[in-house]
Amino acid sequence: MTYELPVVDILLATYNGEKFIRTQIDSVINQTYTNWKLIVRDDGSTDNTVEIIKKYVKHYPNKIKLIEDTDRNLGPSNNFSRLLASSTAEYIMFCDQDDLWKENKVEITLKRMLEVEKKLNQPILVHTDLEIVDRELNTISDSMFDFQNLNKHYVSINQLLVQNNVTGCTVMINKKLKELAEPIPTEGITMHDWWLALVAAAFGRIEFVDEATIKYRQHGNNDVGAKKYTEQIIKKTKAIDKMYDVVSDNFVQAKTFFDRYRSTLDNHDREVVSQYVNLMTYNPFKRIAIINKYKFQKQGFIRNLGFKLIAATIKK
């Protein structure tokens, strides 16, 4: 009996990406795992991005599809949400326009996904490390987790409510997670990958592959760039008001999540999320007590200290 390899849908969101889009698409085409479909949606580019994509569609009509609609400037999260709605595959990956996938990225990620699915019939998210590179693909760091002082073991709902360590362009999800997470809210969340991580943490499994499967390009125009941990601290210290906005947005996202899944969360996670959502209703001393009790914390001492100070002093 011949075993048919599962189809993997790769979702590519583009916007004014003519400088790097060819490199990225070529790296998908050159994957060692070949049973993939690349689905692209452009968000209203004013450069030659769409023309470049159409040339690839013409050469690979059975592998690459361009979604064409009249909506523009939805932003990356909503662009990916629109792409996700178009996918029918059992496994889905997310692709940024300016990176380069290592040739075994799909193979490695799918292998881990299938290994986990043999043990668990649940919504599953698999993500990997990243190699950070400059515009010319010269290595800045072999590991984004080391570079940003991130903890790969942060996979529980109380941790992910406060800080996300899942980078969308490394992610594969199974269909069970897609169906549970959709529709991804168009408002009230920070990014699609954070939303998917929260859903996976609450209802399934997050699995990390401790290997860089992607060259994550830093060029100054990234929607979410990889800043070194110490650089982040210096920058954020100079922008306290922005830090308050970030923490405030986290609470909005948590409320959006709680409103959606309140009735389906287990008792423990319902209590955890409820306490985080309602944190601002308490006085500063009780806020700190709840933060400590439920271990709401960011990754790294300085980040965590900053979060506690802001959470204690932010206005209701």
Using only C-alpha atoms, the radius of gyration works out to: 20 Å
Contiguous uncertain segments of 5+ residues: none
Instruction: Sketch the major β-sheet.
Output: 9 strands, mixed
CATH topology of the largest domain: Spore Coat Polysaccharide Biosynthesis Protein SpsA, Chain A
- The CATH class label of the largest domain is Alpha Beta
Kindly estimate the percentage of residues that lie in beta strands according to DSSP. 15-25%
Number of helices: 13
Shape: globular
First-residue to last-residue Cα separation: 63 Å
- Count of individual domains: 2
Description:
This protein has 316 residues and is an alpha/beta fold. It folds into 2 domains: 8-217, Spore Coat Polysaccharide Biosynthesis Protein SpsA, Chain A, CATH 3.90.550; 229-313, no CATH class. The protein has 13 helices and 9 strands. A hairpin with a 5-residue loop joins strand 6 and strand 7 (139-141). The longest helix has 22 residues, at 240-261. The radius of gyration is 20 Å and the shape is globular. The model has no long low-confidence stretch (mean pLDDT 92).
